[in-house]
Design brief:
The chain is of the alpha/beta class. Helices cover about 35% and strands about 20% of the residues.
Length: about 900
């Protein structure tokens, strides 16, 4: 193949350069021929002055073809950059030298090439695989030219206590190495098979082209043989020099990672983050070793260049960044922070005050008794004891600790102990499912994993990272089997009696405190980073919005609030339920928990409330009396229909029922009571009966009320194509758009998702929620669905929730979902309904039901093209309430195209 046959490559970029060697594997003065992809001449021909040079270095067994999308993007007049993508000697179409080249030699070789090209900066290096190490070696040797570094799946250090990846270990085995890397093309084929999705045939052929014969593959084998497996390897000093040198590298850095890489896994990313803590990091879920093939990396790289490399080509390092891979610039529009009080402040006050001997936290047993409880003084003492023990075990400021403990006393103590130490707690509940939970834990790369036996067993089977700590003391054989090196009980004993003064009494308010994972109902669960200041602001917002004071007594039946009790200075109890499966909360369990502490507040999700109502016949007189003492009920996690709340009101007659709207990134955002919902519905009905102008913007969605204490809310109007690409937030009634929120308790950033963070923060001072909605004339917010679920029909943009609610009012319909089928702009609107009783099989709905659904939807202003029935809607397993409309859309497309319905 020649350049004209390489898909995606402009033949004008291909060139050869003769380079005089000055040191390394060759005698000084030796001339070597290099092949490059270089768009410099093309830019000159077009009269474009590049902002700088991207020096792109491939690994093994690829070649400069890997960087073709960067060369194309760099040739764009909107952001011209010279892209020099090299074929390393003995690789690609460069000269076969017949000389074994070590790591240090290759770094020197690259320096000789850039000298020959006259590259004098600004240069941003881009590296992959072992090309990452070589590019960093060049960067450290040429600080005068360096403006930044970009890394894709690579490594500079083998983490202690771990073996090199099995694939590389096999390739290095004497019985395999020569045959696998040189005699045959097996190493190339295996590498190419790591692409997700698979490489197109012509792209795969282009990658194979320079290595068709065994005599062209000697460099492939030598590259593998040069991997330093231990300190005795000849290239170990050079690798160590690069690894250590990174600690002093202060230029902007970007890491783009494919976490499905069986070679350079997330543990290598974590090591790089410790060496370049200021780096921006984005993990592309589902991408693997060939991340440049799996995802469009050109767009984020050039976006990053525009934001980090100034007009004169120098790097502008964001000094305010607090953690690797998480930060964009700080919100300049956010108000100045108020006086900071750490999350445990009220807990300490209660322990030191007259209520110190009273119950602080409790958890219920299935038989209705209190299984365990701690007073405020005991809770404070246990936290300090455990913190001292954890510190001795190596947990310190910045350590990531994954907590896989059910809500209750143990989790409360462990969480606050970690926060007191300045550790970062990682919370991803089992409701994500095995696959989702595993993906979340591996992505967060915790240093420690504290878990119950079931979690530790899963960690052993699934290869979760982190030193393992059990909750209870275990027999030695069980510890060995689970890999547990300690227990919370043992650590608390070892820390008992220590002076509280030995622990830090203060914490950096802007240091990372927690990584909380989203529900994963709209894609892979995302880690949401909170600082201590942000967590404290969440506490204060909840307290001020709902009037929760230190005399409150709450039942925590909703996982996100299960740990807020001590922070609010309120007594809290965990009912007998599986908090990761909300529908397991029964009326009796709720009543028993309420009776145990004379509860005044209840947190419960809509799915939990549905089951409470379904099981209320099992309540005795004492249970009813306990529930009659509830003064406030909060239900969040998914929209709560008014009829459901009305039924709950009859069960909790004295309670004020509130349904705060929020998300993991900002909890809560708005709030509304049952009475206010009924008033909003009445306004909407009046608007339908009279004129829309009387109650502009009412209806069409779920009314979620007004912004909570300290929050601002606005929308970016939807365009005709269903996007919210405008830049002007508005609050006018009746304008549907993407919902924006600004508040002191909004998340700091998405963890190791730089690109996602940039998108969510694209309007300075605002977080883009991904939800769509509008305001009514009274300033109330109505949520109409997710931006990703907007249907673009020939008649205009259709948001799903209004029509879904209209359909759900039909007798015989339990849940409804609106989905779009077909190309954007011409999508057909499909209604998928779950009936009561359930349909026997999924498929087109009967004539009567279909007609009723169409009429109901039309009354809400939506014309439905097809109606399908399913025995059960696919919902996320965390909330048991959020319907997976994306999945339904794919299923509906298959059914309407004549495919077998199957299960959605």
């Amino acid at each position: 193949m020649v350049a004209a046959d390489w898909p995606g490559v402009d033949p004008e970029w291909s060139r050869d350069v003769d380079v005089v060697s000055t040191s390394g594997a060759d005698e000084p003065g030796t001339v070597r021929r290099w092949h490059l992809l270089d768009n410099g001449a093309q830019l000159a021909r077009l009269g474009l002055a590049p902002a700088g040079t991207l020096l792109c270095v491939h690994g093994n067994p690829t070649w400069s073809y890997l960087w073709r999308t960067l060369a194309e993007a760099g040739s764009d007049p909107a952001h011209p950059w010279r892209v020099v993508a090299v074929d390393q000697l003995d690789m690609g179409y460069s000269e076969r030298t017949g000389t074994f080249r070590r790591l240090a030699d290759r770094i020197n070789d690259l320096g000789d090439l850039t000298d020959a090209l006259g590259l004098d900066g600004p240069v941003v290096t881009v590296g992959h695989d072992w090309g990452g190490v070589i590019s960093l070696g060049w960067a450290l040797a040429h600080p005068q030219h360096l403006a930044g570094v970009v890394l894709t799946n690579t490594a500079v250090h083998q983490p202690s206590g771990s073996d090199i990846p099995p694939a590389l270990r096999l390739a290095l085995h004497p019985a395999v190495h020569q045959w696998g890397t040189t005699t045959s093309d097996a190493f190339l084929r295996v590498t190419h098979s790591l692409a997700h999705p698979p490489l197109r045939a012509d792209v795969r052929q282009a990658y194979m082209a320079p290595y068709r014969r065994a005599d062209r593959r000697a460099g492939v084998g030598n590259f593998v043989a040069d991997i330093p497996v231990d300190a005795s390897h000849p290239s170990f000093p050079a690798l160590s020099g690069v690894a250590e040198g990174l600690h002093g590298l202060k230029v902007p850095a970007l890491m783009l990672w494919g976490p499905k890489d069986p070679i350079f896994s997330d543990r290598y990313l974590k090591d790089l983050i410790t060496r370049l803590p200021h780096a921006d990091v984005h993990r592309f879920e589902g991408a693997g070793h060939l991340v440049a093939e799996d995802r469009n990396i050109a767009a984020p790289i050039f976006q990053w260049l525009g934001e980090n490399i100034s007009a004169d080509g120098s790097g502008s390092l964001e000094t305010e960044a607090i953690t690797a891979g998480s930060q964009g610039p700080k919100d300049t529009a956010e108000p100045a922070p108020s006086e900071f009080r750490p999350l445990w402040d009220l807990l300490g006050e209660q322990a030191a005050g007259p209520a110190g001997g009273d119950t602080a936290v409790a958890e219920m047993a299935p038989d209705g008794r209190v299984a365990r409880s701690l007073s405020w003084r005991q809770l404070d003492r246990n936290i300090l004891d455990l913190a001292a023990g954890l510190r001795d075990a190596g947990v310190g400021s910045g350590s990531r600790v994954s907590l896989m403990v059910p809500p209750g006393v143990d989790l409360t103590v462990a969480l606050y102990a970690c926060l007191r130490l300045g550790a970062v707690v990682v919370v991803a509940d089992a409701g994500l499912g095995t696959k989702g939970l595993s993906r979340a834990v591996k992505g967060a790369t915790p240093d420690f994993l504290i878990g119950i036996d079931k979690a530790l067993a899963a960690a052993s089977v699934l290869g979760w990272p982190g030193r393992r700590i059990s909750v209870r003391d275990l027999p030695a054989a069980r510890c060995r089997m689970l890999g547990a090196e300690n227990s919370l009980e043992a650590l608390a004993r070892s820390g008992a009696g220590r002076s509280p003064g030995q622990l830090a009494d203060s914490v950096d308010p802007d240091a990372p405190a927690a990584v909380l994972f989203t529900s994963g109902s709209t894609g892979p669960a995302k880690g949401v980073l909170y600082t201590h200041r942000k967590l404290a602001a969440m506490r204060d917002t909840v307290a001020e919005t709902f009037g929760i004071r230190s005399d409150a007594r709450l039942v925590a039946g909703f996982a996100p609030f299960a740990l807020l009790g001590p922070a609010l200075g309120a007594v809290s109890v965990t009912p007998a339920m599986d908090v990761t499966a909300p529908r397991t909360l029964t009326a009796s369990a709720l009543a028993d928990a309420a009776a145990a502490i004379d509860a005044t507040v209840v947190f419960a999700s809509p799915a939990a409330l549905r089951n409470v109502l379904a099981t209320q016949d099992g309540l005795n007189e004492a249970g009813h009396k306990a529930l009659e003492g509830i003064g406030l009920l909060l239900s969040a996690g998914a929209p709560v229909p008014e009829p459901l709340l009305a039924e709950v009101q009859r069960l909790l007659p004295a309670a004020s029922l509130h349904t705060p709207y929020g998300m993991t990134e900002a909890l809560p955002v708005t709030d509304i009571s049952l009475e206010q919902i009924q008033a909003a519905d009445a306004d909407a009905a009046a608007g339908t009966a009279t004129s829309a102008s009387a109650v502009a913007g009412a209806g069409n969605g779920v009314c979620v009320g007004w912004p909570v204490h300290g929050a601002r809310v606005a929308v970016v109007p939807l365009a005709a194509d269903g996007t919210a690409s405008g830049s002007q937030p508005v609050t006018e009634p009746g304008v549907t758009g993407e919902i924006l929120v600004s508040a002191p308790h909004v998340k700091e950033a998405y963890d190791r998702l730089w690109l996602t963070q940039q998108e969510s923060n694209s309007l300075p001072g605002w977080h883009r929620t991904g939800d769509v909605g509008h305001f009514d004339a009274a300033g109330r917010l109505w949520v109409e669905g997710r931006l990703a679920h907007v249907v673009t029909s020939p008649g205009g943009v259709v948001t799903p929730v209004g029509a879904e609610q209209a359909i759900e009012r039909l007798d015989g319909v339990r849940l409804a979902a609106i989905a779009g089928v077909g190309p954007a702009g011409t999508q057909a609107v499909v209604a998928v309904v779950e009936t009561v009783p359930p349909a026997r099989k999924a498929g087109p709905a009967g004539t009567q039901l279909a007609g009723d659904v169409r009429r109901a939807a039309l009354e809400s202003g939506v014309e439905v093209s097809a109606v399908l029935a399913v025995p059960a809607q696919p919902t996320d397993i965390r909330h048991n309430a959020k319907i997976d409309r994306t999945r339904l859309s794919r299923w509906a497309s298959r059914v309407l195209a004549g495919g077998r319905p199957g299960k959605p």
